[in-house]
Write a structure and sequence with these properties.
By secondary structure, the chain is an all-beta fold. It is built from no helices and 13 strands. The protein is elongated and about 65 Å long. This is Outer membrane protein with beta-barrel domain. It comes from Breznakibacter xylanolyticus.
């Protein structure tokens, strides 16, 4: 029999959900754009992430821990906007967003949690290439979202006020992803490496045998 113990710090099972906004830093990376009947475009892309502009940047996580291990599902709403645009590539962003849906393995050491994650990028691209604007439709649910490629991540997190139902949490993660997204008459290959610094709130229940 399991008993709910929301304030018991000694309980072995813990269920949690958290919401963590923050900041993201996206490293420069290669960008390829391929269109039918045109030569491919290539450049070393510089991105901004605009974490505090709507829609804001955030992660949502839900999971459990047992003793010193656990699992969580995470949706990270990363956004990227190309800064060094050109006449041929006048607008390029993945801002609704470069979403990263992941499963994370959790390994606890004292107050710290080490995380390893793997998953998929669900991307919502927006672009104008050679004067042709991509209409943000099709894909999943006809809403312009596309399963675009793989993602992995690694990092650390720490929870504070851990004996309360509501607690504070902070995390520092690095992710590496590759996405192939549609443009008019073609596609773009968009690898992204990003640093994620997040601070937010969570809710938890602890269960004791």
């Amino acid at each position: 029999m399991m008993v709910l113990c929301p304030f018991d710090g000694e309980a072995q099972w813990r269920l949690f959900v958290n919401f963590t906004p923050g900041v993201s830093i996206v490293a420069p990376a290669p960008l390829w754009v391929h269109q039918q009947e045109h030569s491919s475009l290539y450049q070393w892309a510089h991105y901004r992430s605009e974490p505090f502009e709507a829609p804001i940047y955030y992660s949502i996580r839900i999971g459990y821990t047992h003793v010193d291990k656990g699992w969580e599902i995470e949706m990270n709403h990363l956004k990227i906007y190309l800064q060094n645009t050109s006449d041929d590539l006048s607008r390029f962003s993945v801002s609704h967003g470069y979403n990263q849906l992941m499963v994370n393995r959790l390994l606890m050491k004292g107050s710290w949690v080490r995380k390893y994650g793997v998953g998929v990028v669900v991307a919502h691209p927006e672009s104008t290439v050679r004067g042709l604007m991509y209409h943000e439709s099709g894909g999943l649910f006809g809403a312009g979202y596309h399963i675009a490629g793989p993602v992995v991540q690694y990092g650390w997190s720490r929870d504070f006020i851990t004996r309360s139902v509501v607690y504070l949490t902070a995390s520092l993660m690095v992710s590496g992803a590759y996405a192939r997204v549609p443009v008019v008459d073609g596609h773009a290959d968009v690898p992204v490496v990003a640093l994620h610094l997040q601070v937010g709130v969570g809710g938890q229940y602890r269960l004791r045998p």
